[in-house]
Amino acid sequence: MSTSIQTLRWVPESGQPEQLFVLLHGVGANAADMGPLAEHLRREFPQAAVLAFDGFEPFDGLPAAQVGGARQWFSIQGQTDATRVARLEPVLPTLQAAVQAAQQAVGLGQQATCLVGFSQGAILALELAQRYDGLVGRVLAFAGRYATLPEAAPKQTTLHFFHGGLDPVIEVQHAREAMQRLADVQGDATIDIAEDAGHEINGALLMRAVFRLRNHIPHRSWRAALGQAPDMPSQGLEALD
Description:
Elements: E1 7-10, E2 19-24, H1 35-44, E3 48-53, E4 57-58, E5 71-72, H2 81-88, H3 91-106, E6 113-118, H4 120-131, E7 138-142, E8 158-164, H5 172-184, E9 189-194, H6 203-215, H7 219-225, E10 237-240
Parallel strand pairs: 2-3, 2-6, 6-7, 7-8, 8-9, 9-10
Antiparallel strand pairs: 1-3, 4-5
Helix pairs in contact: 3-4
């Protein structure tokens, strides 16, 4: 794994950043592929700083001469549910350190930070939030899944799942199962499904992501306002036409 982390940065045109988005691409892509998503977030949240990391390894799904800028967070060659967990292990501490360095660089704390992952990047974002509860305030997981369903929910991080109903790469059932588990363990989570979408971030899901960011009040904020009342249940399914 490379120790040099390549990063693309977008910052507000003026003034100090008020939010930090950290974007994690899918397997075989790179930070530059997250550019359109970064620009959309900047339009919706002009005072946000947006960072996109390159995956830590060259993509090994192509002959070396064809790799170019393709990256991965971990190899999917011969991957099974068991090996996925093991392959994540060395990545998580490095990514945690990178996120913390980004927070320090822009002068923002954990609760002002949102991890946004697509596919393999979403897997990594979910596992990072599970391992280091409170490292970020929110996770937007597009077309992702847990490596293994959690036994307990993070208490300081809100999780938002976005999935295509026709996703042939990571089936939508993984998102539904994650949502059910998080409801069982009183996690703070939402789910939006675009029934006609595949393995993608389409316009409908992106609109819902912005809606969730603007309108979902984290349960920890409710608990603080109500004097540490009991945990509220996760929000239910939202299906999009």
